[in-house]
Amino acid sequence: MDEMAAALKTDPFQFRVKLLEKGGAKKNLAVLKLAAEKAGWGHALPAGVFRGIAQHESFHSFCAQVVELSVAGQTVKVRRVVVAIDCGYVVNPDIAAAQAESAVIFGLSAALKQAITLKNGAVQQTGFHDSDLVRMFEAPQIEVHFVPNGVDNEPTGMGEICVPPVAPALCNAIFAATGKRLRKLPVSLA
Fold it and tell me: Which DSSP letter does residue 159 get?
């Protein structure tokens, strides 16, 4: 999406809005607009901070995320992730928000740190102890917002909905910062 928006020299959020409005995708549009609003999309950021946006739909649920980051040399520092979710009626908002936060950490860990390496045709990693995770001191501020739904809307999935948009939003923010499109994970600016 962002590459098409860049080719058309249009804002990636506005590009998505136009497509979703034409397609009548109300729930996708609602999470996209909520994430952008809560992230302050369209408002100036501090010098050296950049944004990327992405969204995902699965399990009858919808998620959009905005990642804010800075880049110093070859180091990416994720500062903030704003998450908007429509998962129907939210039975327990605290548990759902915690699940979304952990999904963001899981997604950032995969995008920034976890690699599968081979030596003589064999995978070198043998378990979770070989998969580095984003630690508390590295974790960004994570804000979770739910599209308001009344009790007449049945709950939908919250399992993995927040993992898939992390890497695209991250890479779109990196593009905004560096002009480089990244095609491999984990992210490397080298």
Answer: S
Can you give the pLDDT at residue 86?
Answer: 96
Residue in the structure block whose two tokens are 């952990």: 102
Domains of the chain (ranges; CATH) run 2-111+137-178 (3.30.365.10)
Tens of pLDDT along 147-167?
998 777 889 988 789 999 999
What percent of the chain has a predicted confidence (pLDDT) above 70?
Answer: 100
Q: What is the DSSP string of 8-74?
A: TT--HHHHHHHHHHHHT-HHHHHHHHHHHHHHTTTSPPPTT-EEEEEEEEETTEEEEEEEEEEEETT
